[in-house]
Amino acid sequence: MDRTGKAYRRGVSPEPSEYFLAISSHLDYARRGRCTEEETIIMTQAAPPVDYLGLGRQLAGLLGASLEGASADAMKELARAYDPSANEARISAEVFIFHKYLIVQACVGAFPESHVERVIGGLFAALNEKATGLQFSQERQNAMEQMWQMRARQFDAPFTKDREHFLDEAAGPTYWKQSITQFCRNVCEMEHPPNIWAGGKGPSHEASQCVTAAIDRLVSAMSEMNRLHFSHLA
What we know:
By secondary structure, this protein is mostly helical. The protein has helices spanning 16-32, 37-43, 52-67, 70-82, 88-110, 113-133, 138-167, 177-187, 203-230.
């Protein structure tokens, strides 16, 4: 597996409409699965041997919390400003994918390399078990998986560049610009897209700040999970 998480994606791209139809109930699950502060403390209790599905359910809870947080709100506002005609279901779906991608990338950096694939597999299994519980057809589940694969491939290059920028101490204060720009393109592909970074403030800059804070929270939570579940490997 490489540092961009490409080992977790296979297949071809579906028609978006099938995915957006399926994702609405999936978003409801993720929101219901969000973690309170007390639940975050409980979920990080160590329990050897490693329960990858259990870890995946905890990560799904972090995803749900992110979808209720400031970064999700900021990305939705940016999408509406970028394309006022955009369908709300599509915006919500793209916000879900964006935050799922952040979770996967945070896992790559937070957990031991020899366990990362199984940890992320646990996340996917946790999401899939809820999709099954919501009685999604296999066709819809396949569409969701294929849309995820396509979007994740699209995010790989911009996120890699953004991460390099983030780690550069001499870089400016606005982070994740290319990934956020790609998010906007996913909401609506335009022949002549506007420059969302023009000026010194606006929805894109707010999104940048909120995404940076969201990633910090994910890294902090996963670092604690790693300490409790994998510290014996050090």
